[in-house]
């Protein structure tokens, strides 16, 4: 029974990273792993928080600076920026970028496709300035 409860509380992939990023965004400046751990509450071990922060650092989602014997962490992007990094990483891992992008575009709902075209037009206009 205890094992079943433990499994049911297990977080989905990326959920903990998202929670840590939310906590960091709510901080009034760089935050320590201990502060993040307290902010998230519950049963998270300090080492788990440090592991998540280190993974986020590897992904470019956070930065860190020395704070005594520890580090203070700051988000380097918002959730949209993190999602965009993930998308670029997947795209960079594919051999046929054109086919992947074409498939992605044709699978978008009309509203998203229209939005993407508008964003591309804005980006092109900004290059011309």
Summarize the structure in words:
Keywords: DNA-binding, Transcription, Transcription regulation. This is BlaI/MecI/CopY family transcriptional regulator. Belongs to the BlaI transcriptional regulatory family. Pfam families: Penicillinase_R. InterPro entries: BlaI_family, WH-like_DNA-bd_sf, WH_DNA-bd_sf. The chain has 129 residues and is mainly α. It folds into 2 domains: 2-75, Winged helix-like DNA-binding domain superfamily/Winged helix DNA-binding domain (Arc Repressor Mutant, subunit A); 94-128. The chain is built from 7 helices and 3 strands; from the N terminus they run ααβααββααα. The protein has helices at residues 2-8, 15-26, 33-40, 46-58, 79-92, 97-107, 110-128; strands spanning 31-32, 62-67, 70-75. A 3-stranded antiparallel beta sheet has the order 1-3-2. α3 (33-40) crosses α4. The protein is elongated and about 45 Å long.
Notable traits:
129 residues; Arc Repressor Mutant, subunit A; 2 domains; 3-stranded antiparallel beta sheet; 3 strands; disordered N terminus
Q: Number of DSSP helices? A: 7
Indicate the structural class: mainly alpha
Number of domains: 2
N-to-C CA distance: 64 Å
Helix/strand order, N-terminal first: HHEHHEEHHH
InterPro entries: BlaI_family, WH-like_DNA-bd_sf, WH_DNA-bd_sf
Pfam families: Penicillinase_R
Organism: Streptomyces durmitorensis
Protein name: BlaI/MecI/CopY family transcriptional regulator
